[in-house]
Amino acid sequence: MKDKSIIPLSVLELATVPEGGNHKTAIENTVSVAQHTESLGYKRIWMAEHHNMEYIASSATSVLIGHVAGQTSKIRVGSGGIMLPNHSPLVIAEQFGTLETLYPGRIDLGLGRAPGSDQETAYALRRKNMNAAQDFPTDVRQLQSYFSAENKDAKVRAFPAEGLEVPLYILGSSTDSAYLAAGLGLPYAFAAHFAPAQLYEAIRIYKTHFKPSAVLQNPYMIACVNVIGAESDKEANELQNSLIRLIIGIITNTRKPIGPPRDLPDVYQVPEVQHMVNKMLACTFTGSENTLRKSLFNFIQESCVDELMVASHIFDMKKKLASFSILKNALTID
What we know:
Layout: E1 9-13, H1 23-40, E2 44-47, H2 61-70, E3 76-83, H3 89-102, E4 107-112, H4 119-126, H5 136-147, E5 168-172, H6 175-184, E6 188-190, H7 199-209, E7 221-229, H8 233-252, H9 271-280, E8 284-287, H10 289-303, E9 307-311, H11 317-330
Parallel strand pairs: 1-2, 1-9, 2-3, 3-4, 4-5, 5-6, 6-7, 7-8, 7-9
Helix pairs in contact: 1-11, 3-5, 6-7, 8-9, 10-11
């Protein structure tokens, strides 16, 4: 297999519980994905912070990052993301400083402002500080200061974090985050795998308003998309039904574990539901190696992104791992 992709490839792994499995299964599968994609030369694997979601095992994101980093040796491991309003910047600096100390040069800290949960759960996390999202820009700067060697004279210092280089990424699914990432001169990752509507406008805003910083001289844009690769277009389209069923569960609030690609439920025939599903699938790429090569080449050229991060919601783990291999081959330079 050739080693050089036309663009860096990375993974967003949601540690989704499979039908017939449990949270331990989800974590074991996440490790398998990390090890497999590391062997293929993928750049990084990120995990997302979600709460009060029965079939997602990544709520203690920092702990899971440490576990995955400990089971791999080269691939970067990080958060996609830590929902900073749920936490004190000091605690996150200490946690990720510890991770960087244990696994030097391999830890990423992606930051988002959403709760990663429903409002009641957000209240349980944030207690009385329900306006924390408004403080997100300030909290990001505070986090930067805790990692800075210049913080040594402050009354509050973060150990082990001070002086360590843990790269920060701003995550978003709307244009608000694009302005923030540009203003701070930080790399930007957009969640087009579930909220693709504003992707191109967010890219335009980020690149237009980007201000060089001490950590980044030029814009760096990551797009997260869904990819389902298979031996044939027919098989890939069948596998996609597992993803569609997950989306229907989100839309109708009937969440279930990821299951095999069965026939779609009757509710999918409701025009409003089908319309919402199709909107969420706008940045989903499905097909054989040749089909993915064509569609993703076009997407990369049109979006001018610097890195492609992929989520692959496939029930069968062998087929899921194969999908990452097919994607790698599709985007490999001759």
